[in-house]
Amino acid sequence: MQSAGQTIVIIGTGGTIAGASGSATDNVGYTAGQLSVASLVAAIPALAAQPLEAEQLAQLDSKDMDHGTWARLARRVQEHLDRPEVRGIVITHGTDTLEETAYLLQRVLAPGKPVVLTAAMRPATAIQADGPQNLLDAVAVAGADGVRGVVAVVAGQAWSGLEVRKVHSYRLDAFEAGADAGPLAVVEEGQPRRFRDWPAGDALGASLLPEDASAWPWVEVLGSHAGADARALDAWRAAGLQGLVLACTGNGTLHRALEASVQTLTDAGVPVWRTTRCAQGRIVGAAGGAAAALSPWAARIELMLALLAKRR
């Protein structure tokens, strides 16, 4: 149900959108997470008259996102969602792991209000920085009527938190949706034009996530590829691996050199899920399962959540 409140809370976690470089023409040699979220908001005159709150939860390069930060973020977002005066949340984030954070938050919170992640491919110091427009669009989506769930708003498009994937290393429009899906909406002059339903589902609850990072189950992703070798997998098993996601070739196929070690892991009671390493599509047929339509990274999160739920 959409809140009657008007306040948009903007939570900063760092990323390229808050990055700075020594040269305005350098779009790659920058340091992420240098500017505060308050300064990002202050740099956009169009946001000055809006009822906003800005707070800094973290200041990191999203390649270094960690489980403890995820737990703190989920709890803080839920606290703001519970406030009747809050209409929606915007989270500034790095692009590298945005898809993982979005998936986690949607599965854990499944919010009835909008939770909008936004990011940038160029640092804030760039001549043509993309962060300001992305942030402005994210605030517009968070304040629009009828929006709910976790979405990512980048380059004028809104993506489902359950589907969004980073597919390009440099382009400004670096995101698409997996599972052969398209964007949920486009943002046109501050108004979202919706094509599909906003994300929905049952909330697992932020309390499921341990604040102590060492209490999270150890789940890894292993890719199948030409010349695969099982020694790394055997080492993980010996070290206490608790779950494995296989990024398989094609329609869930696995190199024969890995089969015996995977079977040993399964026989020991360690869950093994299969995904495809292909950028689009899903595993069809007998090789499918719980992760058939998920990216390897979303599958890893889903498996961690399943293991955490068993502890309840």
How would you describe what is shown here?
GO terms for molecular function: asparaginase activity. Keywords: Hydrolase. The chain is an alpha/beta fold and 312 residues long. The chain has two domains: 7-194, L-asparaginase, N-terminal domain (Rossmann fold), CATH 3.40.50.1170; 217-310, Rossmann fold (3-Layer(aba) Sandwich), CATH 3.40.50. It contains seven helices and 13 strands. Strand 5 (149-154) and strand 6 form a beta hairpin. The protein starts with 6 loop residues before the first strand and ends with a helix. The model has no long low-confidence stretch (mean pLDDT 96).
- Calculate the mean pLDDT score and round it: 96
C-alpha geometry = globular
Biggest sheet strand line-up: 2-1-3-4-5-6-9-10
Overall tally of domains? 2
The secondary structure category is alpha/beta
Number of helices: 7
Q: Using DSSP, what is the number of strands?
A: 13
Quaternary form: single chain
User: Uncertain runs with pLDDT below 50, 5 residues or more?
Assistant: none
The CATH superfamily of the largest domain bears the name L-asparaginase, N-terminal domain
Can you identify the CATH class of the largest domain?
Alpha Beta
Distance between the termini: 28 Å
Proper CATH architecture of the largest domain: 3-Layer(aba) Sandwich
Order of helices and strands: EHEHEHEHEEEEEEEHEHEH
The amount of helix comes to 25-40%
CATH topology of the largest domain: Rossmann fold
The proportion of residues in beta strands is 15-25%
Major sheet summary line = 8 strands, mixed
GO biological process, one term: asparagine metabolic process
InterPro entries: AsnASE_II, Asp/glu_Ase-like_sf, Asparaginase/glutaminase-like, Asparaginase/glutaminase_AS1, Asparaginase/glutaminase_AS2, Asparaginase_C, L-asparaginase_C, L-asparaginase_N
GO molecular function, one term: asparaginase activity
Active site: 16, 16 (o-isoaspartyl threonine intermediate), 95
